């Protein structure tokens, strides 16, 4: 991929869905492209260490911290100039996604689970959705 992409991923969600956040063709180019960003919200230092070695930013939270607050902060920090991929299906991020859409100059894509795509279209008009089976899986 040569396009500038900003990615924010929730490690707990990715682990549960077996999404490979270190897949070299999908995600790692954003970690090494100076015009892109890749941030993972992760509750474990072990994964954070591995991700940092690949050039990925880590917002570490402990198991009892409010991940949604950290995800909101990360989404609010995006400029909206690049294509954006949010790998967190939680509707708790609807307000942050709406704010991002208001300033976005490029598409915003959100991970949807099951019937959530319809809900995302109603809750945040203009957002695009991607499903877990469209993403690279851990082996």
Summarize the structure in words:
The protein has helices at residues 11-17, 28-32, 45-53, 67-76, 94-103, 116-123; strands spanning 5-10, 37-42, 57-60, 83-87, 108-112, 128-131. The protein has 139 residues and is of the alpha/beta class. It has one domain (5-133): Rossmann fold, CATH 3.40.50.1010. A 6-stranded parallel β-sheet has the order 3-2-1-4-5-6, sandwiched between helices. Helix 4 packs parallel to helix 5 (94-103). It is globular and about 35 Å long.
Quick rundown:
The chain has helices spanning 11-17, 28-32, 45-53, 67-76, 94-103, 116-123, and strands spanning 5-10, 37-42, 57-60, 83-87, 108-112, 128-131. It is an alpha/beta fold.
Pick out its properties:
6 helices, six-stranded parallel β-sheet, 139 residues, 35% helix, globular, Rossmann fold, alpha/beta
Walk me through the topology.
Layout: E1 5-10, H1 11-17, H2 28-32, E2 37-42, H3 45-53, E3 57-60, H4 67-76, E4 83-87, H5 94-103, E5 108-112, H6 116-123, E6 128-131
Helix pairs in contact: 4-5
Within the CATH hierarchy, at the fold level, what is the topology?
Rossmann fold
What is the chain-wise order of helices and strands?
A: EHHEHEHEHEHE
What's the mean pLDDT score? 88
**Regarding CATH, which class?**
Alpha Beta
DSSP helical segment count? 6
Q: Over the alpha carbons, how many angstroms does the gyration radius reach?
A: 14 Å
The class by helix and strand makeup works out as: alpha/beta
Helix percent reads 25-40%
CATH architecture: 3-Layer(aba) Sandwich
Largest sheet: 6 strands, parallel
CATH superfamily: 5'-nuclease
């Amino acid at each position: 991929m040569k396009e500038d992409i900003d990615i924010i991923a929730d490690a707990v969600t990715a682990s549960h869905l077996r999404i490979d956040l270190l897949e070299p063709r999908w995600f790692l180019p954003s970690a090494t492209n100076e015009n892109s960003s890749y941030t993972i919200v992760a509750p474990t230092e072990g994964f954070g260490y591995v991700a940092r070695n690949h050039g990925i930013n880590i917002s570490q939270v402990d198991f009892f911290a409010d991940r949604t607050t950290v995800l909101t902060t990360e989404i609010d920090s995006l400029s909206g100039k690049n294509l954006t991929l949010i790998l967190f299906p939680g509707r708790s991020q609807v307000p942050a996604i709406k704010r991002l859409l208001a300033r976005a100059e490029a598409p915003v894509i959100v991970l949807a689970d099951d019937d959530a795509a319809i809900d995302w279209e109603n809750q945040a008009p203009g957002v695009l959705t991607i499903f877990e089976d469209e993403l690279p899986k851990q082996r």
